[in-house]
UniProtKB/TrEMBL annotation, chain A:
It holds the Pfam family Nitrate_red_del. The keyword Ribonucleoprotein does not apply. Keywords: Chaperone. Gene3D superfamilies: TorD-like (1.10.3480.10). This is Cytoplasmic chaperone TorD family protein. PANTHER family: CHAPERONE PROTEIN YCDY, DIMETHYL SULFOXIDE REDUCTASE CHAPERONE-RELATED.
Length: 205, 683
């Protein structure tokens, strides 16, 4: 594979990556057995766009170094970064990046909710869980991605929301991560977002 | 579509604060958008303090606890998210296991304090009561000595409506700094001043309130009783007392006179650091410019002679006839409006074999008692409404005692130092996500708290947690827990009222509180009827009850000379306006204020010790030492240091120093926190 040539992700790869991040942020990978991680790695190694990107390759390289010992601190680190109970080190909420107090449930949360409403969607426990948690934003993007007709809405949502804050989120992961896996996913997200940006720019929307 | 309308709900600030403000929450799209004061609240009148206006940042704080979490090993920082089912199962399993191991529930302990003053926040005490006899932290770090003192003198705890101050000619703010800690009172004080009242502040610190007063009298910490005695002596010698009042309404004036006469004025003056002119001024204001309204703060009773200090001022007011008349009285704290049934505490086991009640662990000496009680030892600790590790004395001993716990559960909003030292943390709702009722220890208004928004993430109210736990225990073993798991929040509220209470609030149903807070029908002026629930039916200047409890029958006494040569400075722990102990500390905007812990000392002392402003210094005593930044302050005298206790640093210097009183009313002696003697050195 020629690493210097940046490939645009195909729809299939994009869907796969968004799904992967959705599972990741939902916490589904926390209990993934070691053998399954091996399989996941194999799949990642075959994602052409990801492999054409420096951060993507860095992420895959990290994961290749994974051992059973690296799996153990993964959950604790994941919680330190995104769940708590401590001060969150890499907030997964859009609005927390947009105000001095770093609070959740702010104006951005409602804007995101409005997008969901427009598509007839609503988060469960609305008002209790902020709509702009990265997990919901990813799920929503997947929903938009599934239909060619929603392309405009997708780009609008990406530009107005996820792409606005996800770099800061990744930077905090890089700064605070203490586990090989959370760091790898931080790199991978950063790389993937770069691809998404270049794709959108390329499409001139 | 997003909604353009908002709903308004009623809430109460449940913090340990004089005002117990009623608040309005504005919610749009299931999101709390604004919090204001409630104009229908007759005391706070629609205003909040800075903390209150900032609640949104507290409610939607990024770091609020979101899920039940388990940590293994304790203190490691390795947290796993668990479901509520798993949390409740683990806790219930441990409760049952311990019961069978010890054939009693005494290995279970509850340590709860004033993080939330709501009635329904008694749920965990109610839950523990429903199991049978358990261990519990009993006592009070805040007002224990004063509550006993008031009880010995008056037999009950009353305060006047704050409007009463408008009738005062003289106002004495004694060891209280309302500009910082009870902001709503200031409008009443300013209005009284406008109407001609003279305000005197008596305090060891030249506080913001002192700056707004007509006269400031700076006393040595803990010498309140000595100054009162000097004033009483002056009053006696200059016939400024109210003979008629004394005969009609007090008991023991003759004995008190005999007791005071031989005491040395010079010694009293020397102890409180005053001139005779200052004493004369206070005596004349009390005797000639009546009515005199005296407000006693809590700090002055956090001394080894704290209860005596309060009794001494009570006596001064009685001697000058400043009790029971409009615009007079000694105000400290009240409980007469707490007319709830507290049924939430009374769901006791029906099984007569199970003992009821508690095995008391001294609240202020908790570490010690945890280690002392070994039959059976405490193995399970439930902490709620309390940051045990930052707000306790004897921290090292406490941490050691906690090591022998098999399970520590903390219910919290944030990962406090205490929660960090727990095995399981459970996320609690705030007052915007739950029902509650709140009465004040100061004013006479009762407010209801209703939910405005869905619980933040998976947080639950304490009541809900108690219900879930009770239900699960009974599924494991029938009739194990008597705490009702099938009552709704509203049913619990309903049970807190009686017809008499409704009448006193002039409502027929608790739901009417949703229209606005109600004033409990108690006298507007404390002791207005001049009837006292003391054994003599009068104000007790001589208290047989106190004497029977190994205390002086008189409130007035000169101090023991207990200054230590090695630790000659008194370190006072004075509250500041933006935090209540460890609460509100994590708001980013507040972190800009007083960014790091500081100690305030007089420049003359700094010079003597070669300490530069802003430098780090060492503070030490027999309990430990801390490094802290020094700030110059002309507001303290040469021998007094001040620290704002909004960070745990100070605990390294604190042990349990019992105050003279507290056992009678609160079940344990107060901690003489303001008798903290230290030395300082530059680094
Ligand atoms: S802290 Fe006190 S003054 Fe401030 S809002 Fe709460 S009750 Fe009111």
């Amino acid at each position: 594979m020629n690493h210097s040539e940046i490939k645009h992700s195909c729809l299939e790869e994009r869907m796969f990556m968004y799904q992967l991040f959705l599972h990741y942020y939902r916490g589904d990978l926390l209990k993934l057995p070691a053998a399954e991680w091996g399989k996941l790695l194999e799949i990642l190694e075959c994602q052409p766009a990801l492999q054409s990107n420096d951060w993507g390759r860095k992420a895959v390289l990290q994961l290749q170094n994974m051992t059973t010992q690296t799996l153990e601190p993964f959950e604790y680190d994941f919680n330190r970064l995104f769940v708590g109970p401590n001060k969150l080190l890499a907030s997964p909420f859009e609005s927390s990046y947009q105000n001095f107090e770093g609070t959740v449930m702010q104006a951005e949360t409602l804007k995101v909710r409005n997008f969901y409403y427009y598509e007839g969607l609503q988060v469960a426990n609305e008002g209790g869980l902020p709509d702009d948690h990265i997990q919901f934003e990813l799920e929503f993007i997947l929903h938009l991605l599934s239909s060619e007709k929603k392309k405009e809405a997708l780009h609008l949502f990406l530009e107005k929301h996820l792409l606005k804050w996800v770099d800061q989120h990744c930077a905090r992961i890089e700064e605070h991560s203490q586990s090989l896996i959370t760091l790898a996913f931080g790199y991978m997200l950063k790389g993937f977002i770069l691809l998404e940006k270049s794709l959108i720019e390329g499409e001139g929307l | 579509m997003l909604d353009q309308t908002y709903s308004i709900t009623r809430h109460v600030c449940p913090r340990n604060c004089y005002s117990s403000c009623s608040m309005l929450g504005y919610t749009k799209n299931r999101r709390l958008i604004k919090v204001t004061g409630d104009p229908k609240h007759g005391y706070t009148k629609g205003l909040l303090c800075a903390k209150g206006y900032n609640y949104i940042n507290n409610v939607y704080h990024l770091d609020r606890l979101k899920y039940p979490m388990r940590q293994y090993p304790r203190g490691s920082g390795q947290w796993q998210r668990i479901s509520w089912t798993e949390a409740i199962d683990t806790i219930a399993g441990k409760v049952i296991e311990l019961y069978h191991r010890y054939d009693s529930h005494l290995s279970l302990a509850l340590n709860k304090y004033s993080g939330n003053m709501g009635v329904l926040h008694h749920a965990m005490e109610g839950f523990f009561n429903g199991l049978g006899r358990t261990s519990r932290a009993v006592g009070n770090p805040c007002w224990a000595p004063g509550m006993d003192a008031i009880y010995y003198d008056y037999g009950e705890h009353q305060t006047s409506d704050m409007e009463d101050i408008l009738h005062a000619e003289t106002i004495i703010l004694w060891g209280i700094n309302p500009v910082w800690t009870s902001i709503h009172a200031m409008n009443y004080i300013y209005e009284a001043q406008k109407r001609g009242a003279k305000v005197i502040t008596i305090d060891p610190v030249y506080t913001e309130t002192a700056k707004k007063s007509d006269t400031f009298i700076q006393i040595k910490p803990g010498s309140d009783g000595a100054i009162a005695l000097a004033v009483a002596k002056y009053i006696l010698e200059h016939n400024l007392y109210d003979a008629e009042f004394l005969t009609a309404h007090t008991n023991g004036w003759g004995e008190l006179q005999e007791y005071i006469q031989p005491l040395s004025m010079e010694e009293a003056l020397q102890q409180c650091g005053q001139t005779i002119e200052a004493i004369q001024f206070i005596a004349e204001r009390l005797g000639r410019n009546k009515p005199a309204y005296i407000w006693l703060g809590f700090g002055m009773q956090r001394h080894q002679n704290g209860g005596q200090n309060i009794r001494a001022v009570n006596a001064l007011a009685a001697i000058t006839g400043n009790i029971g008349r409009k615009g007079s009285g000694v105000q400290f704290g009240q409980r007469t409006t707490w007319k709830f049934t507290y049924n939430i505490l009374n769901h006791l086991p029906s099984d007569n074999q199970k003992a009821a009640g508690v095995r008391a662990l001294d609240f202020n000496n908790f570490a010690n008692d945890l280690q002392m009680q070994q039959d059976p030892p405490v193995k399970f600790l439930w902490i709620t409404c309390r940051n045990l590790i930052t707000q306790s004395a004897n921290i090292q001993q406490l941490k050691k005692a906690l090591q022998s716990m098999e399970l520590i559960v903390t219910v919290e909003h944030f990962l406090t130092e205490t929660a960090q030292y727990s095995d399981i943390v459970l996320p609690a709702t705030t007052q915007f996500e739950e029902w509650d009722l709140v009465a004040s220890y100061w004013h006479h208004w009762i407010s209801i708290n209703q939910p405005a928004i869905p619980p933040y993430f998976e947080s639950k109210s304490e009541l809900e947690i108690a219900r879930m736990l009770s239900k699960r225990l009974n599924e494991f073993e029938a009739d194990f827990s008597a705490f009702p798991s099938d009552f709704t929040d509203e049913e619990f509220i309903e049970q807190e009222f009686t017809d008499e209470f409704y009448q006193s609030l002039q409502i027929g149903d608790w739901r009417e509180l949703l229209k606005g807070p109600r004033r409990v029908d108690v006298p507007k002026t404390a002791w207005e009827a001049l009837e006292f629930k003391t054994p003599s039916g009068k104000i007790e200047l001589f208290s047989q009850q106190a004497s029977e409890n190994q205390l002086s029958p008189f409130g007035m006494a000169l101090l023991d000379n207990r200054k230590s040569e090695n630790y000659p400075f008194t370190l006072l722990l004075n509250h500041e306006p933006f935090r209540i102990n460890s609460q509100f500390q994590n708001l980013p905007s507040y972190k800009q204020i007083n960014k790091e812990p500081s100690i305030y000392l007089h420049p003359s002392l700094a010079k003597e010790k070669g300490i530069r402003a802003g430098s780090l210094i060492r503070i030490f005593n027999e309990n430990g030492e801390i490094m802290i930044r020094a700030r110059y302050s002309e507001e303290v005298n040469h021998h007094t240091l001040v620290i704002h206790p909004n960070h745990p640093l100070i605990n390294k210097l604190l042990a349990f120093t019992p105050a003279d009183m507290g056992e009678f009313i609160t079940g344990g002696k107060g901690n003489a926190l303001n008798d903290l003697q230290v030395n300082i050195a530059k680094l």
